[in-house]
Amino acid sequence: MKKSLSVVLMCLMLPLVAVSTTGCAVKQAMDQPDKKDLSVLAEGTPRYRVLGELGTPVDSSVSDNGNKIDVYSFVQGYSKGAKAARAFGHGAMDLATLGLWEVIGSPTEAIASGTKVVVRVHYDKNDLIERVVTLKGKSEVDQ
């Protein structure tokens, strides 16, 4: 009788534990950084559009000829669709494995948190992009 009662309790507790432990990888997937529109780094783009997409530069200076140079540092993230699909996948795996997926899902989301990108943007006298030098994350900028 004691053995069957403990089996019943275990069967009732497993789904509760599974439900209470799910969500970490799901939340991490949804909280990943958003994908930036790097088409603003094209030659001739006005500086205000770059600022609007990439935010405040980490460094700004003026060249010898008086033109602005900005350095931007950001994490290139994922589209909303990609984040939603990843979250859905983690949720499905959490349910299928009664929460054991979190052992794999959470570290995976911690590692796959976007790509660091650093670019130096040179503007002409009209504050239009003259050239862009990619200091880090070239593969992201070249897409």
Shape: rod-shaped
How much of the polypeptide forms β-strand, as a percent range? 15-25%
Overall pLDDT: 88
Question: How many angstroms does the end-to-end distance come to?
Answer: 65 Å
State the helical fraction: 40-55%
* Unreliable segments of 5+ consecutive residues: none
Any idea how many domains? 1
Please count the helical segments: 6
Major β-sheet profile:
4 strands, antiparallel
**What is the topology, as strand order, of the major beta sheet?**
1-2-3-4
Q: How would you spell out the order of helices and strands?
A: HHHEEHHEEH
| Alpha-beta content class | alpha+beta
- Which radius of gyration do the C-alpha atoms yield? 23 Å
Number of strands: 4
Kindly describe this structure:
The chain is of the alpha+beta class and 143 residues long. It has one domain (2-141). It contains 6 helices and 4 strands. It has a 4-stranded antiparallel beta sheet. Strand 3 and strand 4 (129-136) form a beta hairpin. Helix 2 packs antiparallel against helix 4 (80-96) and helix 2 (24-30) packs parallel to helix 5 (102-111). It is rod-shaped and about 85 Å long.
Topology readout:
Layout: H1 2-21, H2 24-30, H3 47-54, E1 59-62, E2 68-76, H4 80-96, H5 102-111, E3 115-123, E4 129-136, H6 138-141
Antiparallel strand pairs: 1-2, 2-3, 3-4
